[in-house]
Design a protein that fits this description.
By secondary structure, the chain is an all-alpha fold. Helices cover 74% and strands 0% of the residues. α4 crosses α20, α9 runs parallel beside α13 and α15 runs antiparallel to α16.
Length: 510
């Protein structure tokens, strides 16, 4: 195979919209509001902002710099630093593969709920409808049990959209898609927030979210939650930003782009908090209970609490269409970026063309997704896989990668020089301190804290057998796959991954 020329973003705006589209996903809408509410309300914004400035943006800058400097996917870029470190890159690729399989299923649910909103088909009991009528979930989880057509067909549509966008490439596919998705998401969600703010009880919900409980700032778990939210919401730690930045031009402004993407993501999270809690305030008022009794996160918020609100409010069908369409668009922009990590890594290592890589590797991801998650126990498999791959996949891979890059390979000075050569905002000692000290300590504490909780009680009360097979095995399996892919011999067409592709230190083209 001949070496394929590296694609590039057509404009900086296109790259930024794609990076923002990757970061702004389902977690921004259904995770941040609940995390903020449970950890000091308005006071949570202080540790959240500190976490953004000391971990989120510094990590974004580092990943952008690695991607732009080597112009390669994570495994090939890390291999350029030191050959044994390639295993971390393939570990991240395996993590992206796993996440893509179940993330698509949640988007498929949201697709169905756009239609359900019109006729409010969940009736008087949205929870029973979700787990019973729609997902057909059994009382206890199993494996590869009954088939659920209501999830399978929208999941096919989701994968068709994703693979078509990826097949068109960086400029004509991902960039053009995000130029539509992100403005549309902003318009839809802004309309939803405006409608939510006009509801009776909206002020009650906003008061519950933003009233500061300053005493919580002395609680270490609040700070861990702030760093965890920033970390998981910015799409850092599993190869996405390295991959996207590898398609940048040599003169791209890296620090400025990281600032824009980081603050845009956080702004959307706060907007989501306003919309979600204004809506929950209405539900609490209508039900005659406190906001705390209706506040929830994740699937419970999106597919149980919000349908309950939609059933109660005037023009609820329109509100539901806006909300679930926002979930679909936010999910698609993130899913595209996740699958691109896998496609790009295989392209770089084999020299395979984009369309064969998308159809072959992207098609394999889609096939696994279609086999596992439109099943009656799909919800349980999704829940366990998501928990363990996040806690012991993304976070652990990021911690190991950071320690290796900063302390073992001592690459920060070189990366800083590369970023400063083309960026408007120059990096100082603060950047090295954040990545060398603050972020590893916080990630390490997150690991210890999470493991302690893991061994105290089984996650969600699931059986140990199920957690071993659907949780721990997924997280450990991603690492083992990374090791195997590193050791595998690859076709000669991928030899270009070892060529010297580093741009000059002054950022000028040769």
């Amino acid at each position: 195979m001949t070496k394929q020329p590296r694609e590039q973003w057509a404009t900086r705006t296109g790259f930024l919209l794609a990076a923002i589209g990757s970061a702004v996903g389902l977690g921004n809408i259904w995770r941040f509001p609940a995390i903020a509410y449970e950890n000091g309300g308005g006071a949570f914004l202080l540790p959240y902002l500190i976490a953004l400035l000391t971990a989120g943006i510094p990590l974004l800058i580092m990943e952008y710099t690695i991607g732009r400097k080597y112009r390669l996917s994570p495994p090939a870029a890390l291999r350029r630093m030191a050959r044994p470190v390639e295993v971390i890159g393939w570990w991240q690729v395996a993590i992206s593969f796993v996440i893509a399989t179940y993330y698509a299923a949640i988007i498929a649910w949201a697709v169905r709920y756009v239609g359900f909103s019109v006729g409010q088909q969940w009736g008087d009991d949205p929870e029973a409808f979700l787990f019973g009528d729609f997902l057909r979930a059994p009382e206890t989880p199993g494996f590869l049990d009954g088939f659920v057509p209501g999830v399978f067909w929208p999941l096919i549509i989701v994968w068709a959209v994703v693979l078509v966008v990826l097949a068109f490439g960086i400029r004509r596919g991902i960039e053009r898609a995000n130029k539509v998705f992100i403005p549309l998401l902003f318009v839809l969600f802004t309309a939803l927030v405006i409608r939510a703010l006009t509801l009776d009880g909206a002020a009650l919900g906003l008061d519950a979210l933003f009233s500061p409980n300053w005493s919580e700032l002395g609680n270490g778990s609040v700070w861990v939650a702030a760093y965890g939210q920033i970390f998981f919401s910015l799409s850092i730690g599993f190869g996405i930003m390295v991959t996207y930045a590898s398609y940048l031009g040599r003169r791209a402004d890296l620090t400025g782009s990281a600032m824009v993407a980081g603050f845009a993501n956080s702004s959307f999270e706060i907007l989501a908090g306003i919309g979600v809690f204004a809506t929950l305030g209405y539900l609490a008022t209508a039900s005659g209970v406190g906001v705390g009794e209706v506040a929830s996160a994740g699937i419970g918020l999106a597919f149980v609490a919000f349908p309950a609100v939609i059933s109660e409010m005037p023009l609820g069908g329109l509100f539901g269409v806006l909300f679930f369409s926002s979930l679909v668009i936010a999910g698609l922009s993130s899913l595209i970026s996740i699958v691109q990590v896998v496609v790009s890594a295989v392209q770089d290592r084999t020299g395979m063309g984009r369309i064969p890589a998308v159809l072959g590797i992207g098609g394999l991801v889609a096939l696994v997704s279609l086999l596992l998650f439109p099943t009656e126990s799909g919800i349980y498999l999704l829940d366990a896989s998501d928990h363990f791959i996040n806690q012991y996949g993304i976070a652990l891979a990021a911690l190991v990668g950071l320690v290796v890059i900063v302390w073992v390979l001592r690459q920060l000075p070189s990366l800083q020089q590369n970023a400063d050569a083309t960026s408007a905002i120059r990096l100082g000692r603060w950047w090295r301190i954040c990545l060398g000290v603050i972020t590893p300590l916080v990630l390490g504490w997150m690991m210890v804290d999470s493991l302690r909780a893991e061994f105290e009680d089984n996650y969600e009360g699931y059986s140990t057998e199920f957690l071993l097979s659907a949780g721990w095995s997924v997280a450990i399996g991603a690492l083992l796959v990374g090791v195997i892919l590193t050791l595998m011999p690859w076709p000669a067409g991928g030899e270009h991954a070892d060529l010297d592709l580093e741009p000059p230190a002054d950022g000028k083209d040769r």
